[in-house]
Amino acid sequence: MTSCSTKCYFQASIMCTDSSNVNEPTVTWDSGTTPTITYKYNTASTSQYINLTTQTLVGDYKINFKYSFLFSYDIQSSCKTTPTSISITPIEPLSYNFLDDSYTTIVSITGLDSTFGPVKEFDLTCPLFIKCTLKYEQLRYRLRFYGAPTSYASLWSFKVCLGSTQRDFTIASPINAINFTYSDISYYVPDKAMGKFIYPQYSFNVESNQNIPPYLILKNNAESLPLSKPYPIKSINGISTYMGSFIYPENYVNTTFTLNAQTLDIELKPTSSLVYIKSSVTSLKSANNPLSIFTVSSTETDVYGPIPLYYGLNYGNKKVINSPFSTINGDNNQLQQAFSFLIFKSSASLFQEKISYNTVQLNINNAKETSASPTIIEALSAKSLANDNQLIITIQFTCPNGLLFISTQRIINEMTVLDEVFYYHQDFNIISGDYKSGTVELLYNYKYTDNSTNETNLKDKMKFNIILYDLSLNSIRLTKGEYFSISPNKYLSFPTGFDLNSNFATSDIKSVSFLFNNIDLTNNSGYNIMYIKLSGQVQSLKLTIKPQFEVFEIFGTWNQTSLAYQFIFYLPGNIMPGVLSYSLSLPTSNYIFNTQLPSAYQLNIISNNTDLSGPIFKSITKIPYSEGTKEIGWKVTIEDLTNGYKDGFVIITSSVDNKIYNISITPPIILYSFDYYIKVILPTDIITQDYFISQVVFYDNQGVNSTYESNSFNDFYQYTNPFINYVTDNKINVISVTGRKATVSPTSKLVEITVSPNELIFGKDNFVSIKLSLDNPNFLISKPVVYLTSSNIEIIECKTEQETSANKTHSFFVCNKVIASGFGYPLGFGLSVHNIYSSDGNINGYASDILKENNLQYHIPYGITYQEVPSISRKSAFSSEGGALYLYGKSLTKCTAFQVEGFSPVLNIPVYNSQVSISLEGTFSSPFNITCVYNGGSTFTTVNPIITKYYTDPIISSESSEELPTNEPQKCLNNCGGQLNGYCSSKGCVCYSPYIGEDCSSQVIVVTPDINGTTPVVTFPNITDPGNINPNNTDITKSLINIVELREIDIFGKIVKAYPLNVWIAKQSSKYVYQYQASIESDGFITSITTQVEWFDRDTNLTFANQKVKIVKSSVKYTIDITFYKFISQLNSLQLVMKASLNSTQSNNVCSTKQFGQTVDDNSDYIKLSIQNISLYGRFVKRAIVDGTPRSCSNILLDNSMNLIQKQSNSSQTYIGIQIPYFRNNVKIDPDFSVLIDSDNKNNKGNKDSVCKYSDSGEPIENSDNSNGGEEKGLSKTKIAGIVIGSVAFVVAALFAGGYSIYRKKKIAKQMAPINVKLTKVNNSSSNMDNNNYLKPCIH
User: Fold this and answer.
1) What is this structure's pTM?
2) How far, in Å, CA of 843 to CA of 142, rounded?
3) Is beta strand 564-571 parallel, antiparallel or unpaired with respect to 262-266?
């Protein structure tokens, strides 16, 4: 045991009035450390507030306050020790909560002195953790461990100070020694192109789906090195993948990576250290004018991409803005930056202020006046807004120097500010008077209110302050609970119900239930409702949940009927399974975490697959510069296999001339994997420079994003990086282009600025128009950007557009902006102009002081005119189910009515100047306007309702499949070839193998095909009559099959796009299987056509689209996969064009014919090309697998529209169009071909489609009718041996929802109804399609 402190903390406060002068009290105390005493004197009320804090030893003590001769006051104190014989027993196992990253449990403590009362907090240490606490909260003792342990242990120890001794206790660890597989320690090489601030990554897989993160620590020898917290990014089939970042990679050499109880030695050797942008300040100056213009300048070297500028004053929040703001001169090799802001200038003592500029803090000296008449707070009140979870704070003040801004603070002590919110003139209303003497009204969010009554120790006690600053930054502070006047008594207090919420405890919660529980979020999402019943009604209750990485705060609404709070919240799909982390809190209370509540109060999530990372680049291929196309780009595969890709964009930047190309990638449907061509068309005059991807933002279907920025700061969360597969390739996003060398060329200079109006009106929104005139227009390649900067460095960007009045010597630009009411008041704005680039990357720009030096307007002031006009600045979220809508703005009491589209005007609404609540009942499925009508005008805002779609149980269902096509019965011809060849059924002839054809008089020739090694062309060369079936035939016949083109066809049969398929990438995967891939581009989206050609050396039975298909021996089968295609219209279809031909060396006494019909046994179409007794037979199944579902399909002949060669007796060819319906992700179809040989030696002169040539005529004879009674000169009906060319399949890669399909059928039916007659006419007369053979595509 070791020694512990035995001191008690003690605090006392007293307030008194001294009308004569300011006297400090005399304070005496019996024992303990010297107390810290603070005094606060209010000259307006001649009152003094005295606060004392100290520590005392064990015992009873007295403290005496003696204030001059006015009074003497004694306070008794007592300090006792905690018994050493206590026992601590956990009531429940430790559980983890993602919201505060802690492990917590309730414990029972026995052996305490009951007369003393509960111990507010024990003095605790924990060897394995940075912090642990044991506090009395919500009438129970709670033990909490924060963060991750520094080493693995099955028992966690903690040491408790009891009196002067320390005792050891243990509790079982909730982290099991689970199995894991080490996947990769991958890290980025910091590079100017890929990003200067990207940190090395680690990742690992764990065989667990538990909702407790694995313990993780990295050590370098004995020293623990910092890691970002590992987050789960995905989980599939019980294997979870976690990822995080090394924060200081330059320190990692020969490290030990420990996961749970297992360790792995690794070695990290970063090739270069992180590089930070550091600003070297070259000037910090103040212009000599009534307003001080402070200008900060710096020089950056080797700039690569937009520079983020982080800045802020010591009294304001830090902000960030990207270039071109602040760029004024030079180029990317050496770039000069400067920005200016305004500060009120007065005369008196100096004051010092700090400005942050990237990693540099600068001191600013300015003359400051300490007013002889300081600011006085005369009245102050706070009122709650029902169901809006905000306070309206009203302050009556006198500020002779002028009110600049107001801040609210939540602090622990004078040196520790937990959070601070700043309110400038655009954020509050002056409801009476002016900025020197008046009354202001501001909205305050509850989450920043006092938490003191629920804290148990002075060192953790928080206070709430309101501070008013004047133009010289003199301030007056008022602390909640402190008197600022005694006569009469005045102090800041919150409304009843908000100061008393400290009694809120778990015992106050009577029940927690959910509209849906045990919900399955596997590929499913939706809204849910939480119901909470309390032992009494409170003013406001807040729910905090963390379904993914973000934390969402939802405020409840009180249901008077059910006497319960209701929270409507959204749960995205594919989140981590298990109990959902949530917390409940009142405005002034601690959080009650779900782990503190019974199991019946938990929300259980089921999710088979977890996806918490956004879409990524699966593959990237750089396309270098082409002189012919003038293009560069990246062919990428974007993938998100679980949630699916929704939308996003890519920004490409050039390294010298700073051109920016913003490419939006938004497919019409959710895609899970697709190809896209990110391309940039370069100008004719190119310069040597790099083009690089500087920013990528992708969103999946559940709202999870992946983001990359080349120059972002301190990005520890690169598991969301879309380049995650390319962490070791720091040039994958860069394409270098070689051209002429960039030169130092003249830049355009700003010669005039005209601002209208020339001063702003306080109390209303101001429309400002700024016109620029620049010389040397031939050198200008960009549009200037104007920036308006206020005294507190609030920056407004105003992008210009070029006017048509440009001439040879000057170009003119204009930007228009609406300045929100009060923005920048009272000093107005400083102007600056940037983004003036020449063709070779030379940069020009103007900070405010540079404008002043060039006698150009640099300032937009506020005038003396005051005009109070209502304005709406923002609004609350609004549900499609209706309810309360909150509007926020300025001077809303001036609104005489609110008009909502579709509703009667809402009159006489009691409102504050800052907020109004309007109740709307009904269903709101589309955006609508709400208008404030006031005397002399109106103003409106547009409301976009949030569509509230509640969770529904996933139902395993499939859309009822449509009736697939079947062929009409056919007549049996020629006795089906005899009883050995086939038999006659009710549908027609059914043939015995190996016979084939409409009358079973053909059979297959076994011929080895010649499959092309570069394109999917199959040739059957040297076909002769096998077996001497026709001994007089010694001529050779040759057949060929080819894929020609892919077309998009509109509903009228017109070709709207055509893509010749000439270029393929080929490989042979086995002896009889070849694969080919071609691609086409439509609006950047790349469609891949993958064709597999396979030769069958035996009979094979297959099933395609629920149809049995027999592939006979010596067949060639085409399988074609087509990925996502971006249709121009959902009513359009695709058409794949194939060519088949048959040629013979016989020149005389030969006939050719072509036949198109239907099969008997497999519901297919067929095409048969014949020369004498040899035929090429093609079969096309009239079905397709469209987005995973069998659909009907059709095939047409295109011979009349394809400029077919003149018919010849020894040559026959045809073009077949396979009609592919509109699809969302994939489609698959299946035709096949055969070559047939005649079994006898008769010629079919009687066939009307035959073309014959005989030696006695020398000319082809077409369509002979055999009327002369002579020898038949047509093709005879013979036994045919066939070369079978099998299945053509078209595959597209994903399923789509059945509900959408049903909806689409109804939509198409409705759209098609008025044009059915037109379709019939068009189909009968289309010039693009064969008249008699056009069949409609599949409808689904």
Assistant:
1) 0.74
2) 61
3) unpaired
